[in-house]
Amino acid sequence: MDLTVAQLILQDRKIAYAITDRNLSVVQVSDPMGIFYNRHQASLGRSLLDLVPELVSSEAVLADILTGELPRFELAWVNRETAEGQTLYLTMVILPHRDRTGQITGLVYLIQDVTEMGTIDQQLAQSRNELRLLQDRLARQNLELAAANAELQRLDEMKSTFVSVAAHELRSPLTSISGYVEILLDEEFGPLSDDQREALEIVQRSARRLLTITNNLLDVTRIEAGRVELVLQPTDLPALVETVAAELGPQLEAKAQRLTLRAPPGLPPALCDETRAAQIIGNLLSNASKYTPHGGLITVSLAPAEEEGFLQVSVADNGVGISAEDQTKLFDRFFRAESAHLTQASGAGLGLPITRSLVELHSGRIWYESEPGKGSTFHVTFPIADRPATASSEPAATAGA
Ligand code: ADP
């Protein structure tokens, strides 16, 4: 290796060196980068200990190198301030200096400026510390979040328990009010005047409405808790729709609404829970009636769905319809659209969320299209049963939304 290459390496690696005799007197210095702060001219002939104050307490170690007992001595990350106040990081190595015969004639002192590496290392350490701090903060926030979630869950369970207990407690007296009003209306306790009949009919309608709301609240808590179990059986859907429509007869008659059922002959049976399927169809029919003015038309169509293996029930009305903005929130609990205010229909905004959950429990789908002022059509699908409907599957209809 010629001198130029050696100097190039020294420059590139920012290395300077000094060679001493056995008395530690500097006899040669090479410092192309000025790492000795250009003091090397003055250093010739001086003690290495003057040049490197860090070695002052290491004379014994230097003596061991001179005897050949110690092959090398290193001081890493020594820092020094420059006259300009800049901190330098230096690595220092002391090696024995030998002549051609291998005799140790003094020491070689190598000094490397590793400031760049040192700065990067320091930045890395700082980044690592910041990362650790962030990790600690994240872990703390995760703990707080978990605690907040647990509290929310506890409150949610309390709310569900409260709603469930309240609804249960309300249901029994409401059922007996409804029952006794029915007996009174049947004049089993004596004849009624027109005024008395009218008043009792109002009580009956209100009791039924309250019963529907309490049943819906119970359903919401049951669905939330995953406690709704379906008893699936092959079901004749057109017969089920007819039964539900008959139950809603008085509601339709009161508004002089006409209901048409369209079902092609030979439809296969659906696989569904009859009570829950009746509730689904009842909710849609009841809504169609509630949100359609006096004299409106309601059509229920049954057909094989586009999706193979499913039947589709579509309930169409020519009522007030639903605005595009309201349509985005239709399945939110307790949401009531503008149509509810337009028609002044009663309700609690629970029918559609419950209907959707029940449809999805059947592996079916629910969707709709609607135009304000023109009407709405709600579609639901039920899976097709692979067995015919049995005679025992007399539909058991329940109240609407
Ligand atoms: P509820 O009828 O008890 O208010 P639902 O959850 O069944 O609750 O319906 C939510 C809202 O969606 C209703 O308040 C009504 O504004 C709107 N809606 C539902 N069905 C129809 C329909 N066929 N036509 C117009 N609006 C409807």
List the helices and strands and how they pair.
Elements: H1 3-12, E1 15-20, E2 26-30, H2 40-43, H3 48-51, H4 59-67, E3 73-81, E4 87-98, E5 104-113, H5 115-185, H6 194-224, E6 233-235, H7 237-247, H8 249-254, E7 258-262, E8 270-272, H9 274-290, E9 297-304, E10 310-317, H10 324-327, H11 338-343, H12 351-361, E11 366-371, E12 375-383
Parallel strand pairs: 7-9
Antiparallel strand pairs: 1-2, 1-5, 3-4, 4-5, 6-8, 9-10, 10-12, 11-12
Helix pairs in contact: 5-6, 6-12, 7-9, 9-12
This protein binds adenosine-5'-diphosphate.
Adenosine-5'-diphosphate is lined by residues 287-288, 291, 317, 319-322, 330, 335-337, 339-340, 347-352, 376, 401.
Detailed description of the structure:
By secondary structure, this protein is α+β, with helices and mostly antiparallel strands. The protein contains twelve helices and twelve strands. A five-stranded antiparallel beta sheet has the order 2-1-5-4-3, sandwiched between helices. It has a five-stranded mixed beta sheet with strand order 7-9-10-12-11. Strands 6-8 form a two-stranded antiparallel sheet. α6 crosses α12 and α9 runs antiparallel to α12. The chain binds adenosine-5'-diphosphate. The site of adenosine-5'-diphosphate has 22 residues, from α9, α11 and α12.
Approximately what portion of the residues adopt beta-strand conformation? 15-25%
Termini separation: 96 Å
Helix content, binned percent: 40-55%
Radius of gyration: 46 Å
